């Protein structure tokens, strides 16, 4: 019998290839007698694959074949007919799925078929080879998986301490994800605001310096217009990774400020140190050599940076004032031709 069986234990993520795979096939040029003999010789055979030479044509199930055989004509006459003529009577495309499809997914897809197709086998493709899976075997396997999953969950429920620990871990993981930007994976604006406020208070309390760098990707709108938004997202991810790799200290934070802007928070960092890091980041991004035909200043993608340092003596300055000063410095960098770093004046209460 042409059947492949995988005897591995079924799990929730078991693929269709773990079920018995039937591979009985016939050519359209053969007679219907060959189909009848195949089903008689193998009672558990759910269907027969039909090929037009080397090309897959269709599949006829045992149920559909018996329905056609019950039509009013002699068995001998029926057996003499070519499969090609018979195929016109069941010309309905079978559901075809890759062999790596999960059993649960295959069940969901099969249940979406019309009622008259619900009991039909599935055609499974593995390494460009066609097989048939019995729909009843699929449902039985899914029932066994479901039963095993329920038993496993019941066992886990009895260990309440373990479940509580898992819940706490999941909560912490969710909180961590809530602090990250969904595209770049670096801290988002909300987390950045919280961290800047905390570090600002610490800098005032301990009379230390606090520097920030505000970065903008030059001509990013032109990049999106030229290469598409998907490429733009990829650029944001690459730039974010590049900036994050340059901020080596544990206390340093590279965050997505919004759109194509990034903000770097540098505790205990002087103005000179922040400028040096910003210049290094600028060079590293340009060194990625990301082609940018929409740029007015060069052939590669570049960034502009505004640097601001909160000196310990500026006790009346707020975090927003520091950002405002860095933003003004960034604006000056753009006016000066972009792809450069500008240091801001010490911020005041009004941010002027």
UniProtKB/TrEMBL annotation:
Gene Ontology biological process terms in this record: cell adhesion involved in single-species biofilm formation; negative regulation of bacterial-type flagellum-dependent cell motility
Cellular component terms (Gene Ontology): plasma membrane
Signal peptide: none
Pfam family, one: GGDEF
Span of domain GGDEF: 208-346
Gene Ontology MF terms: diguanylate cyclase activity
EC annotation from Swiss-Prot or TrEMBL: 2.7.7.65
Gene3D superfamilies: 3.30.70.270
UniProt-listed InterPro entries: Diguanylate_Cyclase (IPR050469), GGDEF_dom (IPR000160), Nucleotide_cyclase (IPR029787), Rev_trsase/Diguanyl_cyclase (IPR043128)
Catalytic reactions of this protein: 2 GTP = 3',3'-c-di-GMP + 2 diphosphate
NCBIfam families listed in its UniProt record: GGDEF
Name used for this protein in its record: diguanylate cyclase
Species in which this protein is naturally found: Desulfuromusa kysingii
Lineage: Bacteria, Pseudomonadati, Thermodesulfobacteriota, Desulfuromonadia, Desulfuromonadales
């Amino acid at each position: 019998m042409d059947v492949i069986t995988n005897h591995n234990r079924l799990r929730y993520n078991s693929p269709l290839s773990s079920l018995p795979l039937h591979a009985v096939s016939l050519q359209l040029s053969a007679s219907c007698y060959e189909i009848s003999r195949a089903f008689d010789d193998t009672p558990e055979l759910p269907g027969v694959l039909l090929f037009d030479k080397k090309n897959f044509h269709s599949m006829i199930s045992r149920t559909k074949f018996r329905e056609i055989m019950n039509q009013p004509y002699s068995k001998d006459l029926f057996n003499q007919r070519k499969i090609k003529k018979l195929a016109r009577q069941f010309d309905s495309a079978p559901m075809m799925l890759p062999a790596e499809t999960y059993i649960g997914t295959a069940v969901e897809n099969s249940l979406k078929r019309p009622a008259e197709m619900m009991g039909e086998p599935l055609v499974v493709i593995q390494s460009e080879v066609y097989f048939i899976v019995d729909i009843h075997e699929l449902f039985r396997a899914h029932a066994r998986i479901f039963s095993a999953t329920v038993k496993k969950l019941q066992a886990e429920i009895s260990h309440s301490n373990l479940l509580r620990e898992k819940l706490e871990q999941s909560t912490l993981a969710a909180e961590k994800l809530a602090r990250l930007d969904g595209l770049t994976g670096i801290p988002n604006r909300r987390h950045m605001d919280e961290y800047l406020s905390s570090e600002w208070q610490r800098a005032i309390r301990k009379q230390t310096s606090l520097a920030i760098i505000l970065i903008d990707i030059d001509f990013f709108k032109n990049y999106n217009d030229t290469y598409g938004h998907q490429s733009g997202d990829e650029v944001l991810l690459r730039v974010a990774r590049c900036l994050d790799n340059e901020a080596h200290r544990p206390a340093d934070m590279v965050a997505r400020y919004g759109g194509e802007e990034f903000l770097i928070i540098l505790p205990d960092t002087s103005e000179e140190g922040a400028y040096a890091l910003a210049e290094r980041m600028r060079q590293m991004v340009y060194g990625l050599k990301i082609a940018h035909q929409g740029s007015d200043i060069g052939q590669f993608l570049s960034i502009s940076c505004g640097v601001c340092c909160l000196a310990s003596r500026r006790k009346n300055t707020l975090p927003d004032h520091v950002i405002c000063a860095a933003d003004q410095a960034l604006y000056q960098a753009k006016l000066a031709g972009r792809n450069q770093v500008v240091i801001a004046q010490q911020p005041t209460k009004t941010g002027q």
